[in-house]
Model the fold of this input.
Amino acid sequence: MLDVTKDKIREAAEQKRREYEKQEREKDEQLRQLQVEANSKRAELLGYRFGYIRGQRYFANLDIRDIRQEGVRIGLFGPAGSGKSSFIVTCERALRPYLCKGTAGIQDAGGEGTIILEECLKELGSDFCLVDTRGFFRHDADEFTALTNIVYGRIEPGQHITFDRRVDNVGSEAYFSKWLHAIIIVLSATDPRLQDGHTHRNNLNVVREFMRPRGIAPITVITHHDKIGKGEERDILTKASTATGSSRDHTFFVTNYHEDKKDRDYNTEIEAMKVMKSALNVAERFVRIHKQQEVYKEVDKARSSQRGTEAVEDFFRRLSAKRHIPFGRFQPIIDVLKREDITTSQSLCDNWRDVQYTVSMSDPMKDYIDEELSSTLQNLHL
Done:
């Protein structure tokens, strides 16, 4: 009887040993697969050349030499304490696995004063870099000016970002390679301004209105993923996507590396590299839209001698294509203009100042029309 008991004990112990070894083999295999995936994504990003994601045919007949020479610039924005600098550290460690820490300084929840624009990952030799703007989000007109200065390349790496004036050193079409070609907005999953569902959404409304007509599709990174429960994920994802205007496909949870974390985490690195690839994807789309608009402008100049007899419908079709606004939204304006016998772009230029107050439209729509009329009037006098 004693021998039978000993046999059962040995058998149970052997079964436990086999189960443990099986679990260890499965862990090792999972780790190996993660390592293979991380190495593959890293090689893809380190070898990135502009146009690799969308394909060269996507840019057929467009002059993209400036971007190929200078590379894609991806800007990062977010409140101080959102984990934005930690995300840059995570990206650096993902692409340079021999690093134990990154180069970006990490801010606490304060410190939103004067800041310096910095480029990261430029030295890796790929056709892209991250542009760190540090702590942001006072949500006022001065900060919006700073945002536009950064987006249009008026502030160069190493320069202080000013919140109280427009910088005019660069920023024209000739400096398109200095613009930001993609934007990542970083928000913390634990931020009460995100969790309440309306503070960040209201504060970011002006940013969304700035990006949408320009074809800028923001990427959203939600940090501090490890500090929320599984049941909270969907709600936070929805609130972050709504606040920034990102699609769900462009909204990512990321668990950043921390400054004192030395061990490799392949899941963290894969998350960060997915964000970078997504940003490159939307950047290529943005470049194509902009380059097509440049072609349209050249065509417009060639047709400027005929612009005075252009039908008012064609004026708004051109504006619709340029601003990516459905043509139907202009139809009520066209109807009012026709009732006033304004049927050509020349007549529209001559009478817009008087007739605009009889047309119901939003302020952004009025600004787009004013800008296009100014361009049309300029071309008519070339």
